[in-house]
Fold this sequence. Notes:
Elements: H1 2-13, H2 20-29, E1 43-44, H3 48-67, H4 79-84, H5 98-122, E2 130-131, H6 133-151, H7 169-197, H8 220-236, H9 243-268
Antiparallel strand pairs: 1-2
Amino acid sequence: MSTVLTISYLFKYIFPFEDTLGKITDFLIDYGKSKATPHPLDVPKRFFVHFYIWATLWNLYFLYILSTGGYDVNNSIHQIPALMTSYDGENDSTAGDSSWIFVTLFLLTLHTMRRLYENVFVSVFSNKARMTFMQYLWGLVYYTLLPPTLLTEAKFNNTFNSGIPLPRLVQVFGFLLYIIGNILEYKTLAAFARLRIKGRVKKESHGIAYGIFFDFVTCPHYLGEVCIYAGLLLVVGHHCASWRAVIVYNVVAHVLMAKSAHEWYKRTFPLYPTDRKAIFPYLL
């Protein structure tokens, strides 16, 4: 599904079509303010909260699996996750050190918990903001697949035997990048909320945000999300090669969503700052 969505982004923004194919790509990827065509199966954008409720619970379950040394083969509840991570890391010399996989999954869980908090207590969603039911299902599938992706290459027999080793310099940098990404995303979403709570923008409308990183890019929250997943990649390193596919999808998706939002702001606000980029300062 991630491949389908990534290709849809590329068709929309690199090879745009106005015919049926264009409508299909719009249906697959547009949501919120960028979504121009309503559909009977659309759901409110505030349903994002379901992603983070599920992701937090699911991640905590996999953290429990790692902390206890693996699956209990006699427990039927473990059978589905066991099938999802069928890689025999315990007997393969190339399997990743589950200590760092545990740390990465723990950081991912903190991220989903923070996003859950934001969706419940910070963000102010417009009643007009919608997403397709397919996007909603993909969000649930995406967060379902993240923990098994990490655990697929884990050795279950060494998580806490000798403790978590000292991090390498690149892992320290990854952790700092993860922290910066979380702060940037939180402050951006809080700024959007303030526009509708304390500013002059009505709940069903949009305005131009200033300050923080908005002087450089339209979507600092998407830049923050990229920083978070890139930081996790540096933390887990060679212990989970599969995470590289996650970061590729994450970067492509957020770059192109930022481009969509950036173009929408420029069309909607004639006086929109011309020196802002979409997601990467001075670049894109």
